[in-house]
Amino acid sequence: MRKAIYLLVLGLVVMTVAACSEKVQEGGPSQLETYVTSLEELTAKASDIVEVEILDQQETIEYGGVVFTVSSAKVISTQKGPLASGAIMNVLETGGVMSNGQEFKFNGIPVAKKKEKLFLFLETYQGPITQDAYVPIGAYQGKFKVENDKVIQLTPSEEKLKDYKPVKKEDFKIIIKEIIVK
C-alpha cells in the first residue's frame, strides 16, 4: 500500500513537472474580433489577397502580455489589391516565441514559418504594435497554407469556413477570381 501511494505521488510530481516545462502554450479569445463563415465573405473583407513565401521572422514583440510576430514575405501572386508580384511585405500575427523561449500558438495555430508558402486574405494593420504591416482577416481565418499543391485553411475545426475543402492551388486561384468578379 505504501509503495502504491509513493508511486502515485511520484507520478503526479512527474506529470506536474512535465506540464510546467511545456514549451508550447496555446490561448486565444472565446470569439474572434472579425469572424467570417464563407470564402465569399472572407474575399469581400480582404483589401488584399496574395500568395506569399515567408522569408523570415523579423521580429517578435511582446505587447500587453501577448506575443506577436512580424514576418517578411515575398508576394508570389496577387489575386486582389495593389501588392505586386515580387513585392516584400510584412505580416503581423498573434503568437510566436516569447522572450522566455516558450512558443505561443493563438488558438492552436502557429505563426508562419520561414519558406512556408501561403495564401493570405489581408487588411492593413492599424495599431500600436508595428508600422507598415498587414494582418490576416479573422486572425487566422484568412491564412491558407500551400502544401503538396493543395490549399489548406489553417484554422481550428470549429472556425473553418463552411463548405471549404482543400483544393489544388490553381483551382483556388480560379475560385477566388470567380468570387471577385461576382
UniProtKB/TrEMBL annotation:
<keyword id="KW-0732">Signal</keyword>
<feature type="signal peptide">
    <location>
        <begin position="1"/>
        <end position="19"/>
    </location>
</feature>
<protein>
    <recommendedName>
        <fullName>Lipoprotein</fullName>
    </recommendedName>
</protein>
